[in-house]
Design a protein that fits this description.
Elements lengths: L1 E8 L1 H6 L2 H11 L2 E8 L3 H7 L9 H8 L4 E9 L1 H9 L12 H5 L8 E3 L3 H11 L5
The structure holds ribavirin triphosphate and magnesium ion.
The site of ribavirin triphosphate has 10 residues, from strand 4.
GO molecular function: nucleoside diphosphate kinase activity
InterPro entries: NDK-like_dom, NDK-like_dom_sf, Nucleoside_diP_kinase, Nucleoside_diP_kinase_AS
Subunit structure: Homotetramer.
Length: 136
């Protein structure tokens, strides 16, 4: 069954020039882009997106980082899109992410791990509404 997921190329990925690489891997996997936009997040949007982490010690740094420069937000669609993209991204901590995954290939630190992908259908619906309200 086809589903949608929210993918972000975070500010570090934009700065590093790997937006095309990430899109290319998404397309090679067989997933489709249904929305794409460069966005510079406000503090409010960033806090809403990462609301589940509000009590974590790294929350302040996370919001600071994600608002520091523009990111690329996308809605990606296809069968099992949520899990399929998480698999392409690799483990949260890049030094534990498999070589061949986006984080395994392009990142070194947990705080700058290049991409975000929704982790469940509920998260995907919530996050897509935040970044692309017109898609509902
Ligand atoms: P994301 O939400 O960005 O796709 O990453 P994720 O699901 O793999 O990881 P999550 O647990 O949701 O954490 C969100 C982001 O917070 C940063 N983080 N820092 N310092 C730390 O221990 C720590 N833990 C998580 C990461 O940048 C992670 O992507
Ligand atoms: Mg997450």
């Amino acid at each position: 069954m086809s589903e949608r997921t929210l993918v972000l190329v975070k500010p570090d990925g934009v700065r590093r020039g790997v937006v095309g690489e990430v899109i290319s891997r998404i397309e090679r996997k067989g997933l489709k882009l249904v929305a794409l936009e460069l966005q510079h997040l406000s503090r409010e949007t960033a806090e809403a997106h990462y609301a589940e982490h509000v009590e974590r010690p790294f929350f302040g740094e996370l919001v600071e980082f994600i608002t520091s420069a523009p990111l690329v937000a996308m809605v990606v669609e296809g069968p099992n899109a949520i899990k399929a993209f998480r698999q392409l991204a690799g483990a949260t901590n890049p030094v534990e992410a498999a070589t061949g995954s986006i984080r395994g290939d392009f990142a070194l630190e947990i705080g700058e791990n290049i991409v975000h992908g929704s982790d469940s259908p509920d998260s995907a619906a919530r996050e897509i509404k935040i970044f692309f309200p017109e898609l509902g």
